Amino acid sequence: MRRLLIVFGLFVTSFLASGQQISGPWKGELQLGVTKLAIVFRFQDGGCTMDSPDQGALGLPAELVYMSADSVSVTQKTAGISFSGRLRDGKIVGRFAQGGLSMPLVLTLGEVVRNRPQTPVEPFPYQTEEVSFNNGDVTLAGTLTYPEGWNGRKKVPVAVMVTGSGAENRDEELYSHKPFLVIADYLARNGVATLRYDDRGVGSSTGDPNTATTLDNMEDASAGLDYLRSRGLFSKVGLIGHSEGGEIAFMLASRSKTDFIVSLAGPGVQGDSILLLQNMNALKQAGMTMRLTKEYIRAQIKAQGNPWFDYFIDYDPVPDIQKVYCPALILNGGSDTQVEPSVNIPSIEANLPKNRKGRFASKKTMVKVYPGLNHLFQHCQTGQVNEYPEIEETFSPEALEDIAKWIGNL
What residue ranges of the chain are covered by domains with CATH 2.40.128? Predict the structure, then answer.
């Protein structure tokens, strides 16, 4: 989810600095094509940290290169980022640079505050447990949430929750939304346990996300399924995956690794087709008429030398979808502009195994598209990425109810 899969996009983590007269939190927005990314620089005690609240990244360290009464210069070497600015009329006016690109950035004093009414607030009426499991030398840390009223004597269904593309925390946090926390909370109140975990290199998990492909992420999710079975507490062990996580659901179901799957906006066509549609949409939104081809997209991706993208553009989910015999709940937003339902859902429906009557091989398998929901399953106006930060709803109540009922009826 986090990885917006746009060739022309800039995937950023950003930074700044502090001093005697420049102190406290300073907020700004980077304009990235048709979307904006909020950042907060915290200047305190002659040093600085940076938050990217829209990406769920808080307290990132930055190096203060220069500080005066009205000027500041900061770098973040890991991400190849620099920022230099001057205090003018109560604002820090400067330029942000990363990866050979430079853009203006204006900071004002204050925090980024977004209203997210669905985010659960403690105390919770159910138990949670901090756990970890291993995939080789990679340790994945997460939260195991038990259903309300659970006492350990009756086995209940459980689902591993697998995030979308890009390095994400266990709540799949984006733009201050925490959809996996919202889903886990709802399911716990309706008899279903969940395990959500930090991706490689995020939060308390180890491993290098920069070298991982979807295949590596699949193996991490498979290790989570094995861990849950080893606990011996659950009746059925399944998987809920969003975007890339939905693709991973198909992969593991085809390998008979899971009792059931819930695919939330999981791709049904090859990655280069997904990227072509996303980039055509981005150009249209920018008012550009440039014609794109898969060959152009592939050439641009291959030139980057990014392992995740290289795997993504070559991976075709159809052979895996054709071997999904376990119960599957396939959901998509009708206004999704990242995994367009008009292209992906027909491919999924056509390739799911059928019985002699032409019906799905599993009687429990269902496919549903929600009109007016975007890629994050929020009610929206356009479905475009630039709406995500402004929408207060984190996850559609209808979809939450459908997921809980479907798992409960297995």
Answer: 24-109
Task: Look at residues 12, 98, 100, 108 and name the one whose alpha carbon lies nearest to residue 53.
Answer: 12
Q: Which CATH code of 3.30.2320, 2.40.128, 1.10.1660, 3.40.50 fits the domain covering 24-109?
A: 2.40.128
Between CA 337 and CA 269 the distance in angstroms is 14
Fold of 128-269+316-408: Rossmann fold (3.40.50)
- In the chain, CATH 3.40.50.1820 covers 128-269+316-408
Q: CB within 8 A of 112, min separation 6: which ones?
A: 27, 38, 40, 51, 53, 176
pLDDT 10s digits, 137-173: 999 999 999 999 999 889 999 999 999 999 999 999 9
pLDDT digit string, tens, across residues 101-132: 888 999 999 888 889 999 999 999 999 999 99
Contacts for 241 with CB less than 8 Å, ≥ 6 apart: 161, 162, 163, 221, 247, 248, 249, 261, 262, 263, 264, 266
- Helix, strand, coil tally for the chain in percent (to 5): 30, 30, 40
Phi, psi of 253 (to 5 degrees): -65, -40
Strand partners, 69: none
Query: Could you give the residue ranges of the DSSP H alpha helices within 255-388?
Result: 271-285, 294-304, 307-314, 318-321, 341-351
Which amino acid, 236?
K
Spatial contact of 38 and 53, defined as CB atoms under 8 Å apart:
yes
